[in-house]
Amino acid sequence: MYYPYLRGKQFELILLRDNAEFLAKNNIHPIIEPVKSDFTALTRSMKAMNENSVEYTLIVNPVAGQKPVPSSSILTELIENEFEKLKTISVGYMLHAESNIHDLVELLEKHPDFNFSILHYGYTNGKKLAAAIDGYENIKIHVFIDGFAGKLYQRYLKKDGIKRVLIRDGFKPQKKNAHYPSNEHFSDLHITFPDEGMDGFGDYLIVGDDYTETGGPAYAVAIHLTYLDDDDMFIYHFISDQTDSPTDPGGKFLEALAKLVKKVNKPKSLIFRSRACAEYLKLYKMQHYPGLGYVKKLSMQHHIELMANFISRES
Fold it and tell me: Rounded to whole angstroms, how far apart are CA atoms 13 and 293?
């Protein structure tokens, strides 16, 4: 199963809401780390996922952002007050270097009817953790963040009945959009996760783990699009020709989009004709710039559709 990891920015939440039926049909399990204290958009996305029986994890103690959203407000407003309606939610708890496992145990005991996903993001004492949480049957998934949970640590947490998922960041961010290569390797985890002793895999889509509240001025516009070549995953970076000033983002987008369209229409193109790809072609035909947030949403949607297509072919 595929577990895409999303921060709760506006267009990421719209992506989940608009694709809820698709996520359910393809057994895709989103992991959401809220980054906004206004839960309006998140609530709408949760409603759509609940109505379509999408299994998803909502992290209740987020760490992203300069001022992380308080755990108490997520638990109270989004989960405890709505629990009877939330049939497919898993409560996500982030364990990092500064975590106190007694807080996790207290939460497990307080909510025995909740399903829990534990995200391992820098906590180091796997043996102590395994002893502390042994016997809690409401733990359903261990999510290991690659680079923050070693092999020995993972071994302590191997237990029948609990799924194991590995999240690996395939996106390699550049300080400036103009510095991206035309294409590069993204990931092979969708193929190799069983070799890692995992039941599922995930990534940060085409955004990456490095979280920023807002981006700086776009001197160049980049459209990121993943593709498969002999089932290995790579990513195209379509860069605008204009790179020397922050003006004319719409014109820069159309420059980058023209390169995308040329690659899509090339004989034996490796780009999967997703619904998101079709939307890119439509935007090119209209010569319309929808805003960079929408562009990022489309590339994220394409990545999810590509993963779903690969999994359906392999199953």
Answer: 12
According to the model, what pLDDT value does residue 68 have? 76
Residue 37 predicted with pLDDT over 90: no
Q: Is 2 in contact with 311 (CB distance < 8 Å)? A: yes
7 phi and psi, to 5 degrees?
A: -85, 150
Tell me how far apart the alpha carbons of residues 93 and 75 are, in angstroms, rounded to a whole number: 11
Q: Give the per-residue pLDDT at 80.
A: 78
CA distance 4 to 305: 11
Average pLDDT of 193-216? 86
Indicate if the alpha-carbon torsion angle 103, 105, 111, 116 is positive or negative: positive
Q: What is the pLDDT of residues 178-191, one digit of tens each?
A: 999 999 999 999 99
> What average pLDDT does the chain have?
93
d(CA 285, CA 232): 31
For the chain, how many residues are written? Answer: 315
Q: Is the pTM of this model over 0.90?
A: yes
Q: Are strands 183-187 and 200-202 parallel, antiparallel or unpaired?
A: unpaired
Pairing type for strands 139-145 and 163-167 reads parallel
Domain boundaries, the chain: 1-167
Instruction: Give one word for 118, left, alpha or beta, with left for phi > 0 and alpha for psi -120 to 50.
Output: beta
CA distances from 196 to 59, 146, 218, 306 (A): 24, 11, 38, 22
User: What CATH number does domain 1-167 carry, 2.40.30.90, 3.40.1280.10, 2.40.50.140, 3.20.20.80?
Assistant: 3.20.20.80
